């Protein structure tokens, strides 16, 4: 299976081909259409913010379609919020240099649970991201 064969490329190409068909028949589109292809998502879209800042006025629209989604278990298309984003977190755990006997379990914390608690500390019970900093984006939902 090709990379992206079940991703959004087929949906995107369907739109491109529909636009090409209108143009080939010398027909006018029944709406003002803007198409943006952003191909840096796998590396965190480093140039998207600058593009938006530079060309923001040209990007205004009454509606937007994003093809990142899928079908639910009934085959209905779905739209998901907070679908994008990258989080880089590095956890380092130190433990004993040798295995400990199980009789020491009450005295030696289990690293698996320490990692679980570390992950849980990234968001509160309401889903609010607790990471602070200049580049932190807050989402509640």
Descriptive notes:
The protein starts with 8 loop residues before the first helix and ends in a 21-residue tail after the last helix. It contains 3 helices and 2 strands, in the order H-H-E-E-H. It is elongated. By secondary structure, it is mostly helical. A two-stranded antiparallel ribbon has the order 1-2. The chain has 2 domains: 1-83, no CATH class; 87-141, no CATH class.
List the helices and strands and how they pair.
Layout: H1 9-24, H2 48-55, E1 70-71, E2 77-78, H3 111-120
Antiparallel strand pairs: 1-2
Descriptive tags:
2 domains; two-stranded antiparallel ribbon; 141 residues; elongated; 3 helices
Average of per-residue pLDDT values = 77
The description of the largest β-sheet is: 2 strands, antiparallel
- The N- and C-terminal alpha carbons lie at a distance of 34 Å
- Uncertain segments of ≥5 residues (pLDDT<50)? none
Net shape: elongated
The number of distinct structural domains comes to 2
Give the strand order of the largest sheet, numbering strands 1, 2, ... along the chain.
Answer: 1-2
Beta-strand content estimate: under 5%
Give the count of helical stretches: 3
Evaluate the radius of gyration. 23 Å
Helix content: 10-25%
Structural class: mainly alpha
Tally of DSSP β-strands: 2
What is the element string, with H for helices and E for strands?
A: HHEEH
């Amino acid at each position: 299976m090709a990379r992206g064969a079940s991703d959004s490329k087929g949906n995107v190409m369907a739109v491109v081909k529909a636009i090409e068909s209108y143009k080939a028949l010398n027909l006018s589109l029944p709406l003002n259409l803007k198409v943006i292809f952003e191909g840096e998502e796998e590396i965190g879209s480093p140039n998207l913010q600058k593009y938006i800042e530079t060309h923001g006025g040209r990007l205004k629209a009454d509606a937007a379609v994003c093809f990142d989604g899928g079908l639910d278990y009934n085959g209905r298309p779905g739209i998901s919020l907070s679908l994008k984003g990258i989080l880089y977190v590095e956890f380092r755990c130190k433990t004993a240099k040798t295995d400990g006997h199980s009789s020491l379990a009450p005295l030696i914390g289990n690293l698996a649970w320490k990692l679980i608690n570390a992950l849980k500390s990234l968001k509160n019970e309401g889903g609010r991201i607790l990471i602070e900093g200049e580049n932190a984006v807050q989402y509640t939902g």
